């Protein structure tokens, strides 16, 4: 999830959501490569799997297509000062500085999710203690998050908690 957030920070929301939509397809492709799933194109479920891949691919093409913008009515609702305040240099161009790094983060997030779901399915079949495996997963996730945070932002002040929306977000995320 951390890779997904860092990818979102460097790209935009539409681009990031497309990578989240790719996770089931990547899981399916990895499962076929690892021989955990059989394709069987001559059966109805096999044809539905190929249809799903085609539909997701079509959705990706439509959402990433950069065609002409249609301005049916005036859309200049924010002043230039307001656009700069929210991080936009000009109307319609958010200040996302490094799309290559963001794409790499999003690809890593997509692959991590895919492998996590595959491993989780295998572990739940083999490992008898579900609570212990959940605790181990949380511990390893914490270690990964710390390593990722250190790699991305080396500023020690970024680790400080303040009594603001960040602290409330952390408390809310732990409760849900």
TrEMBL record:
TM ranges: 15-34, 46-65, 99-119, 131-152
Cellular component, GO, one term: membrane
InterPro entries on file: WAT1-related (IPR030184)
Keywords: Membrane, Transmembrane, Transmembrane helix
UniProt key word Transmembrane helix: yes
Molecular functions per Gene Ontology: transmembrane transporter activity
Keyword presence, Membrane: yes
Name this protein carries in UniProt: WAT1-related protein
Organism: Oryza meyeriana var. granulata
């Amino acid at each position: 999830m951390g890779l997904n957030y860092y990818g979102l920070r460097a790209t935009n929301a539409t681009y990031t959501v497309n990578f989240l939509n790719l996770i089931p397809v990547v899981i399916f492709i990895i499962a076929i490569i690892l021989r955990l799933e059989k394709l069987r194109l001559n059966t109805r479920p096999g044809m539905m799997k190929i249809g799903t891949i085609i539909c997701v691919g079509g959705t990706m093409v439509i959402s990433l297509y950069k065609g002409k913008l249609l301005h049916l009515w005036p859309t200049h609702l924010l002043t230039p000062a307001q656009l700069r305040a929210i991080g936009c240099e000009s109307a319609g161009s958010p200040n996302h500085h490094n799309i290559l790094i963001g794409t790499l983060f999003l690809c890593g997030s997509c692959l991590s999710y895919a492998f996590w779901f595959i491993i989780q399915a295998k572990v739940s079949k083999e490992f008898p203690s579900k609570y212990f495996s959940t605790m181990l997963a949380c511990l390893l996730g914490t270690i990964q998050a710390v390593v990722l945070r250190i790699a991305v932002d080396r500023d020690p002040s970024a680790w400080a908690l303040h009594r603001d929306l960040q602290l409330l977000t952390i408390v809310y995320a732990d409760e849900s």
